[in-house]
Design a protein that fits this description.
Layout lengths: L1 E8 L4 E9 L2 E10 L14 H20 L4 E6 L1 H5 L3 H12 L4 E2 L2 H13 L6 E7 L4 E7 L2 E8 L3 H8 L6 H16 L13 E5 L1 H14 L10 E3 H11 L4 H4 L13 H15 L3 E4 L4 H10 L11 H12 L4 H17 L1 H4 L5 H11 L11 H10 L8 H13 L7 H6 L8 H17 L8 E9 L2 E8 L4 H8 L2 H8 L2 E4 L1
Parallel strand pairs: 1-4, 4-5, 6-9, 9-11, 13-14
Antiparallel strand pairs: 1-2, 2-3, 6-7, 7-8, 10-11, 12-13
């Protein structure tokens, strides 16, 4: 396993993320960030000396952490503030002399492409408009069928807008109104915005969008602790916007879910979102936890994404998590294969649409992950780990659904106390679906009990009050047959049919 550190020197924040890299996959093992505010420049466009010294001190600390964590390689990128700085070369030279870190300044086009790579390889959204609000710039990337159609980069961001419009002689509301008006004027100059298909989904990227998602989650008492793929209604955004635009800095810092280091520039980011959703008429905004840093890592770890995005986002995410947690991937894949066969063969009984296969896939691939913590009561641990997995390419509802399937598959009943916590995500009708999918998962796990692919094919005939299950075998399968027969009672209870395995 290789350890890679990525340093993102942004206009607002410097961030260090250390990744474990495993044969085409990567997972975060450590993260640190500091608000360096390089976007606050001198009138001549140069970086302020105080900010330079703060940034260098921060990178020295990052370098020390990389040494302690035995990092194999450091990748470092700088974005808008450094890119535009008149003293850019001197600054980068000073960083190298003080830390030995070579920072690459990415162009506007490279930055937008990294953001796109981070989103397209972690979200299953066929047609999207990415809005990334940074400290010194705001980027829009419009794509369809995994191809970029248009890109627009504005030279204003949360930090620069704050510097432009916030002053002691103006109320917070006046500052916000001025920013919204200014951004609206800039948006009206982009012709292709008017060509965007109405089915396009708006995807928010960057620290301000993540903070917005956390605030809305807390306001709505959303039960899942996950930002990535969180869908925010515009009416919920407007509630937060109208609240924040009236607050002074001290009160903003007390907002639950908002980073205190971002409190002074957060209203500016909200002004950009407000101007855009009103101008375009979007009704919701989907938060992405992946952006530039993930785009850089995808290009490094999975070089083929430079030419073609990952086609199976969920599959990649599942294999990444399974590999990182030491799951027996071969057994997990065989379990899912058997789940799919059971789903097809028993469709006349369960009558579920094919979208439920995605739930089964998560449950099957990760059904053993709880054993990495403790064997006893491992389905409960598995359920918790899925709920906190931050999987890519799948809805929050399906993640919760899969977590309950893995919890139920080793016992008879749903924990209704836990179920009540997720009543805003799951419906009462989903209870029976969880039970049926859990029985299918139990059968699939049993039919690969020896983890040797002994069962190759399943055929089911529904005859009266019985289901006759015929198995094609590869060698001895006594262990698998004994384990599968032990599921017969639960099968009858849930499907109201006797199960006979031949």
């Amino acid at each position: 396993m290789e350890k890679i550190a990525l340093i993102d020197l942004g206009s607002n924040t410097a961030r260090l993320v250390i990744y474990d890299v495993m044969d085409g996959y990567f997972a975060v093992s450590e993260e640190r960030r500091e608000p360096v505010r390089l976007g606050e420049t001198e009138p001549d466009g140069s970086l302020k000396q105080t900010r330079i010294m703060q940034a260098i001190a921060t990178l020295q600390n990052f370098k020390e952490m990389c040494t302690i964590k035995k990092v194999d390689k450091i990748l470092a990128v700088a974005t808008a503030a450094v890119r535009r700085a008149s003293n850019q070369k001197t600054f980068l030279s000073d960083i190298y002399n003080a830390t030995g870190i070579r920072v690459t300044t990415v162009s506007e086009e490279e930055e937008a492409n990294y953001v796109y790579q981070g989103v397209i390889n972690s979200m299953d959204i066929p047609r999207g408009l990415i809005m990334e609000i940074g400290g010194g710039s705001t980027k829009f990337v419009y794509y369809n069928r995994r191809t970029i159609l248009h890109t627009k980069i504005f030279e204003f961001g949360a930090v620069t807008l704050t510097n432009m419009f916030v002053s002691e002689g103006k109320t917070p509301e006046q500052c916000s109104d001025d920013m919204v008006s200014y951004v609206r004027e800039q948006l009206e100059q982009v012709d292709w915005f008017k060509e965007i298909d109405p089915d396009t989904q708006l995807i928010g990227v960057g620290g301000s969008c993540r903070n917005l998602a956390r605030i809305i989650r807390k306001v709505k008492k959303y039960p899942l602790d996950m930002v990535h793929n969180f869908s925010m209604e515009v009416e919920d955004f407007n509630y937060v916007f109208n609240m924040v635009r009236t607050l002074d800095l001290d009160k903003s810092r007390r907002i639950k879910g908002l980073s205190s280091a971002r409190a002074d520039v957060f209203p500016s980011a909200l002004a950009v979102i407000k101007a855009f959703v009103d101008y375009m008429g979007f009704t919701k905004l989907i938060a992405s936890g992946s952006g530039l840093r993930e785009g850089v890592m995808f290009n490094y770890v999975v070089p083929q994404t430079l030419e073609k995005p990952i086609s199976d986002v969920l599959g990649y995410s599942l294999h990444s998590l399974a590999s990182h947690m030491g799951v027996n991937v071969s057994h997990a894949e065989q379990t899912f294969n058997l789940c799919v066969q059971l789903f097809k063969q028993l469709r006349v009984l369960h009558k579920f649409p094919r979208v439920y296969v995605k739930v089964l896939r998560v449950a099957a691939m990760l059904h053993d992950i709880g054993k990495s913590f403790k064997f006893y009561n491992h389905p409960k641990h598995t359920s918790y780990m899925i709920l906190n997995s931050n999987l890519w390419g799948i809805s929050h509802k399906d993640i919760v659904f899969a977590a309950f399937v893995t919890d139920v598959y080793n016992k008879e009943e749903v924990n209704y106390t836990d179920w009540a916590k997720y009543s805003s995500i799951l419906s009462p009708e989903d209870v029976e679906a969880v039970k049926k999918l859990a029985v299918m998962l139990r059968l699939a796990v049993s039919l690969d009990f020896g983890m040797r692919n002994a069962v190759t094919e399943i055929t089911c005939d529904v005859l009266g009050d019985s289901v006759i299950m015929k198995l094609e075998l590869n060698g001895n399968a006594n262990l698998e047959l004994n384990a599968a027969n032990s599921v017969a009672l639960d099968f009858k209870k849930i499907f109201k049919k006797n199960l006979e395995i031949l």
